[in-house]
Amino acid sequence: MQNDVILKLDNITRKFPGVVALNNVSLEVKTGEVHILLGENGAGKSTLVKILSGAYSKDSGEIFLNGNKVGIKNPKHAQDLGIGVIYQELNLIPHLTVAENIFLGREFSYPAGLIDSKKIIEETKKLLSELNVKINPNELISSLGTAQQQMVEIAKALSLNSKILIMDEPTSSLTKNEIETLFKTIRKLKQKDVAIIYISHRLEELFEIGDRVTVLRDGNLIETKLIADTNRAELIKLMVNRDLKDHFPKREKQTGNEILKVVDLSTENLLKNISFSLYAGEIIGIYGLLGSGRTELARAIFGADKIESGEIFIKEKPVKINSPRKAIKEGIGFLTEDRKTQGLILDLAVKENISITSLDELTSFGVLKLKDELRISDSYISELKIKTTGSNQDVRCLSGGNQQKVVFAKWLNSETNIFIFDEPTRGIDVGAKQEIYELMNKLTQNGYGIIMISSELPEVLGMSDRILVMHNGEITAEFENKDLTQEMIISSAIGEVYAN
To answer: Across-strand partners of 221?
Structure first.
């Protein structure tokens, strides 16, 4: 029955060395509701999800499903109990097909034991049809974009017929239309009495899809409220224990000399005659819809993608950038969209991730100067306020916001003066976002130039001095950020000319 308590957590505690990740957290989740779990990175959300999914064990406390006490032994046991999880980080096997990923380990088979591929494909088509997603079940995961892979993850979770579905940042890589499709699916699931625990840092989503919200801070439960009884300002204050009066901190623009110039840059498959300049002390925002070429432009400038024609000038000097190594030598740093697979080495410590861009300076006759490495990493941990147990902590153990700060530190530790940020605040909370914005402002005040790619229009408008809009591999508009509206940007992003 709708509104019956399906899940109850009673005084859940989980500790790690030097950190209490969850401290006597208690909450209830009802059938047919979307229960928002909200908090800054490091608040305890991910730990709670991992306990429910069977990836972590709890140190103390009790878990009840439908009034019965359960001990979740492992992820398979959690699935058997009807708990499904869609993680923010995709959990798909690239060289398998869409259908094979969705039914991996649960394949349909003939009586003789042979896999019934036809049945698997039919069931995959049904799932994708329910999501209104047009993806070929026989397509390899490696050939799909991030948004399409996210939809496959959702289909995979739905195939388990979960009664409790945990969604961890499910919209972080989705387009507006895909988000609307997801929300329609969520509403259908609610009608079927599925309980949904929904984690997102996009506060506007919560008021559209949520029923109740529980706020965590520093491992403690702060409050549970009806979405209808709260607002954005109150939730932010509960999360960070302070008012964020100005979400986008202001700065005084002091533009210097031209430090980067791109002239008629084109690539084989997408980019066409891209031209623009970046000046010291400036933030250029780049906006475009999925497939517009934003990330491809960043990769081309950084030498990760081959440039077919065009020129790049750095401080008025023509340069040929044919590899990331060459870009780094020319003073370009690239904070990639996917920090975990492209920006960090998760199996290394914080200090090793910070020092990796300056190994030449930190080695003598092939031997790493460990004291210098520790001194440098400790200074950045202090300067950037990275929340960690120390330089030797594995970077994978940090929250998303603190991992992003480590990526910042890595490039600050090099000779970088041109920063390319691709989705710099994706998947991090509102408090950590403001800290990232303040770091960006500090960089410009010190004379660095920033190219910022973002899917969030408020972020583009709030942080940029100029905005370039892309559509189908071309720059369709360039705006000074003065009296600019979202409608003007969107019109250019879909290839139209804005008419006031």
So the answer is: 216
